[in-house]
């Protein structure tokens, strides 16, 4: 097998070295030996592993990034000097820019899941730093870059260069820096033109916070309590309750991603962006990618419309969806008015706070 192997390609992630604020296109040696780590995992009981995990993986934030970092070291040690190696680190993958068709996506991971959950009204409060940069690339550009990088490594004329591992950060850092607040504001404009069918609530792009207590309170009031009420009604009429379970998954994912939604990194991507310049003239049309020409609006549009079409499998009547959206907007305003009216009554009439403040 080794004789016939022209190049070994390992898919990692830009976040595998998240303990570094500036991540270059090179190997970062693992802080532990991978052979020893495998031995520990195979010979120590699960309880002891759970106790030791946080200290053992430090400074990595979780076992995912730790395992990704360790995997890079494994393939480097196994291939170095013997097999041409490419380590490609994609950032957050989003729906395709053009191929096989614009907006194509096959899972809810990353930004598209966030946009669908928010657009459907399932996520009423976003727990993130508003200025957090969402580093993302369309899936078709990612695939092209992987193909080009493997071809380039396999066709090096110089033997030493061919056997020297190449690392690429598939990131749009410095080309498109899109923060969470921008995504929500732009998404709101697009979403009002192409709303999802039967949204559960009207999404508010201003409901974003980096304070956990604020997030948790609003999550309970605006997400969990309504989910419990709806599931209660569903159970009474003999239907399967599902919203509470879904809200639990959303909260778990939100907390798990807090390290990434409250921090920013600089991913050096010079080698990645220079990949397209080494193409043969005959391959330019099929494999070149002009990421600089892709607008931020098209990113958001593809996430919303692509998620609606290829994940939710619904391309319904837009006018009907807009009418339903208007009803949800009116209902949201009424509920907000009643909420503040109730607080006013509670504080100033029921508890007499106004008398205490103004007439003491």
Automatic annotation (TrEMBL):
Keyword Membrane: yes
GO molecular function: alcohol-forming long-chain fatty acyl-CoA reductase activity; alcohol-forming very long-chain fatty acyl-CoA reductase activity
Gene Ontology BP terms: long-chain fatty-acyl-CoA metabolic process
Domain of life, per lineage: Eukaryota
Enzyme class name: oxidoreductase
Transmembrane stretches, start-end: 215-238, 330-348
Reaction catalyzed: a long-chain fatty acyl-CoA + 2 NADPH + 2 H(+) = a long-chain primary fatty alcohol + 2 NADP(+) + CoA
Coiled-coil parts of chain: none
Example of a GO cellular component annotation carried by this entry: peroxisome
Domain Thioester reductase (TE) residue range list: 3-146
Entries under PANTHER family matching the protein: FATTY ACYL-COA REDUCTASE, MALE STERILITY PROTEIN 2-RELATED
Name of this protein: Fatty acyl-CoA reductase
């Amino acid at each position: 097998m080794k004789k016939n192997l022209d190049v070994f390609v390992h898919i990692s992630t830009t976040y595998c070295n998240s303990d570094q604020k500036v991540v270059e296109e090179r190997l970062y040696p693992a802080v532990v030996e991978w052979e020893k780590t495998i031995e520990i995992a195979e010979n120590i009981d699960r309880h002891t592993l759970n106790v030791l995990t946080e200290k053992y993986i430090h400074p990595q934030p979780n076992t995912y990034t730790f395992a990704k970092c360790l995997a890079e070291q494994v393939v480097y040690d196994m291939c170095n000097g013997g097999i041409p190696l490419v380590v490609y680190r994609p950032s957050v993958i989003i729906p395709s820019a053009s191929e096989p068709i614009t907006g194509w996506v096959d899972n809810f991971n990353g930004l598209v899941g966030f946009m669908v959950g928010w657009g459907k009204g399932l996520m009423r409060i976003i727990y993130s730093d508003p200025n957090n940069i969402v580093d993302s690339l369309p899936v078709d550009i990612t695939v092209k870059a992987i193909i080009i990088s493997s071809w380039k490594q396999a066709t090096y004329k110089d033997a030493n260069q061919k056997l020297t591992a190449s690392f690429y950060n598939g990131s749009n850092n410095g080309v498109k820096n899109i923060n969470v607040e921008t995504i929500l504001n732009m998404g709101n404009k697009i979403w009002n033109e192409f709303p999802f069918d039967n949204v559960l609530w009207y999404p508010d792009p201003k409901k974003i916070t980096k304070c956990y207590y604020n997030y948790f309170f609003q999550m309970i009031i605006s997400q969990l309590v309504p989910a419990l009420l709806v599931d209660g009604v569903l159970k009474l009429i003999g239907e399967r309750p599902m919203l509470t379970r879904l809200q639990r998954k959303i909260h778990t994912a939100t907390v798990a991603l807090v390290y990434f939604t409250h921090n920013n990194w600089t991913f050096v991507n010079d080698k990645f962006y220079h990949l397209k310049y080494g193409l043969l003239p005959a391959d330019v049309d099929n494999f070149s990618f002009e990421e600089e020409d892709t607008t931020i609006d098209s990113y958001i549009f593809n996430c919303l419309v692509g998620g609606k079409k290829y994940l939710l499998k619904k391309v319904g009547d837009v006018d009907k969806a807009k009418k339903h959206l208007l009803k949800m907007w009116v209902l949201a305003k009424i509920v907000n008015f009643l909420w503040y009216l109730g607080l006013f009554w509670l504080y100033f009439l029921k508890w007499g706070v106004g008398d205490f403040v103004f007439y003491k």
